[in-house]
Amino acid sequence: MVKMKDVAELAGVSSAAVSRYLNGGYISVDKAERIKKAIELTGYVRSSQARALRTGSTKLIGVIVPKINSESVSRITAGIGQVLGRRGYQMLLANTDNAADRELEYLDLFQNHPVDGIVLVATMITDEHRRAIESCRVPIVLIGQHVEGVACVYHDDYEAAFELGHALAGRVDGKIAYIGVTEEDRAAGYDRRRGFEAGLRAADNPLDAALIRLGSFTLDSGYGAARELLSVAPDISFIACATDTMAAGALRAIDEVRGMGEGMHRVSGFGDNAFLRALTGGIPTVHYGYLTSGVEATNMLLNTLDGAEGENGLKTLKLGHQLMNV
Amino acid sequence: MVKMKDVAELAGVSSAAVSRYLNGGYISVDKAERIKKAIELTGYVRSSQARALRTGSTKLIGVIVPKINSESVSRITAGIGQVLGRRGYQMLLANTDNAADRELEYLDLFQNHPVDGIVLVATMITDEHRRAIESCRVPIVLIGQHVEGVACVYHDDYEAAFELGHALAGRVDGKIAYIGVTEEDRAAGYDRRRGFEAGLRAADNPLDAALIRLGSFTLDSGYGAARELLSVAPDISFIACATDTMAAGALRAIDEVRGMGEGMHRVSGFGDNAFLRALTGGIPTVHYGYLTSGVEATNMLLNTLDGAEGENGLKTLKLGHQLMNV
DNA sequence: TATTATGGTGAAAGCGATTTCAACGACAGG
DNA sequence: CCTGTCGTTGAAATCGCTTTCACCATAATA
């Protein structure tokens, strides 16, 4: 492994000079020239490990996600990766499989480990989370949840759900049911349900509390909840879901019970999943700029790391949404 | 930042002793006890950067993927992450966005950067790739392609496509068309098309070369190719696709042209996408154990890194497949 | 001429771990 | 009593880079 000293010797300078050359310090043109040649000749690349030890910065960003095989998360990480690549960082990915404790575990691991900053794609935020975040040595940005005093990039789930509910109330005649997710997930659980309820109420078509079920983000859980709803209240005419994935499950359930092709006119979701859009011609749903949220969060984080310090500090950013097919 | 020396002083031993304690070397029980206390008291964690510099190992595995927001890749990375987590490694993710040159770029970056090994989820393998892989300093495992002399975990795309083609030939009456992908992708492009053709031929229903189109893995490209096929040859009765994603696009095209609900009986794909399965009740497709391939590849890689060296060397592993809904 | 700047330079001191190595006390065997 | 093991131990040398710091020319200023 060719090291800096070798390059220095070949170029007839000190390693300090080589280091300066690499980092843009004082160096005369002729020495710069010789160093450049020597580097090409030897194929030298600097050891990021030694550099990290010395400078305390690894150019690594930890990204914690709840589940890697979901379209929304994929799009977010795509956005994150895009910015990281452009700005000379790399992504250390940690997948928690929806286990809150593994989230904390990684938060802990990353702190004492080699990352310069953290992006947390959050589902539930407990007090323990809040504590872990506050005591975090490195800057951290949340995606998907709004937490006071923490840098976040998020969507206005309440407002979006309100609009969706309001629009659907006018369009659907008959009973509307709702399949949500755990309220521990403030954004997708609490805000969406509350917003949806408020939207329906505002249109004088309040949601019957008996027609609310809880899923667990998966397609199968949406299917199960919908089957149950349909058997309990066969006269339901619409099932709104907190995620497109669960909506796909509900759709299948309706198809099974009411006949193929019925489902796609009787469900709504959140997230504007591409498959669902193509296969159904588009159910009512909310489009979020997931890629954008990854991009924005990462830029925010990197700005505080590289940047003019206080200039582009960590802050809170609410992104817009778009109702689809209503 | 509390360092090893601090712990050592507090425990009244040398830092060498602390290091040995941490790494399981010679240490007397009473000193071990004191060190343990001191570590708890100070909340010491060792600097992975210093450790990496000294030992030359970072416990990081580079994972290169063509596109992060695709179900197959998600499942593969889920499998990789699972094993890495269990065995004390972390995943450095690099997304190439289907650009072969960025693949090479990352291969290069990772070599001189801080990874102990590489998993490459491969699409096309050019000569340049082969060269880069050979000259790679760290062990590397390929997923998804079979390359001579390189450790790979892959599926038998030819055989799977053959079986699918053979089964469909018996089931479908009328013209069958095919939407493939670039043959630079040996597995998904060349092998699947060849296998499918051979399967049809074996059932005495050869594929008309005029009814073959090329997509680019995306839903939209599948849609476009199918629209074109349908307008050129309106009497087509079935469109087989090289991926489920493109099949979803083709399905939509058929629905548009022939009426809603027609598509799902007239397309096949590869990959057994969960959404597609749920929303259509299941089109003919091939199920691959993507998660398993991630698991197997990673175990293979880590075995050569940690392991009894030659014992569990890098090798080639062909995984099985399963025809669905035929 | 005497004095500052100014642009460059290399020796050397870390960064925080791991690992070699010589040495030590205790104890067994000859 | 001498010698050889055995289990432990800490001092010190690295790992490869960055970054002070003291210093040296040479050019500019007084």
Can you walk me through this structure?
2 copies of one chain form a homodimer. Chain A is of the alpha/beta class and 326 residues long. Helix content of chain A is 49%, strand content 17%. Chain A contains 13 helices and 12 strands. A 6-stranded parallel β-sheet of chain A has the order 2-1-3-4-5-11, sandwiched between helices. A 4-stranded parallel β-sheet of chain A has the order 7-6-8-9, sandwiched between helices. In chain A, helix 9 links the parallel strand 6 and strand 7 (212-214). In chain A, helix 1 (4-11) packs across helix 2 (15-23), helix 1 packs across helix 3 and helix 6 runs parallel beside helix 7. The longest helix of chain A has 17 residues, at 186-202. Chain A is elongated. Chains A and B meet through helix 4, helix 5, strand 2, helix 11 and helix 12 of A and helix 4, helix 5, strand 2, helix 11 and helix 12 of B. Strand 2 of chain A pairs antiparallel with strand 2 (90-95) of chain B. Chain A binds a DNA duplex (30 and 30 nucleotides) through helix 2 and helix 4.
List the helices and strands and how they pair.
The structure is a homodimer of 326-residue chains.
Chain A: H1 4-11, H2 15-23, H3 29-42, H4 48-55, E1 60-65, H5 71-86, E2 90-95, H6 100-111, E3 117-121, H7 127-134, E4 140-143, E5 152-155, H8 157-171, E6 175-180, H9 186-202, E7 212-214, H10 219-232, E8 236-241, H11 244-258, E9 267-268, H12 274-280, E10 285-288, H13 290-306, E11 316-319, E12 321-324
Parallel strand pairs in A: 1-2, 1-3, 3-4, 4-5, 5-11, 6-7, 6-8, 8-9
Antiparallel strand pairs in A: 10-12
Helix pairs in contact in A: 1-2, 1-3, 5-13, 6-7, 8-9, 10-11
Chain A binds a DNA duplex (30 and 30 nucleotides) through residues 1, 3-5, 13-20, 22-23, 25-28, 31, 46-47, 49-56.
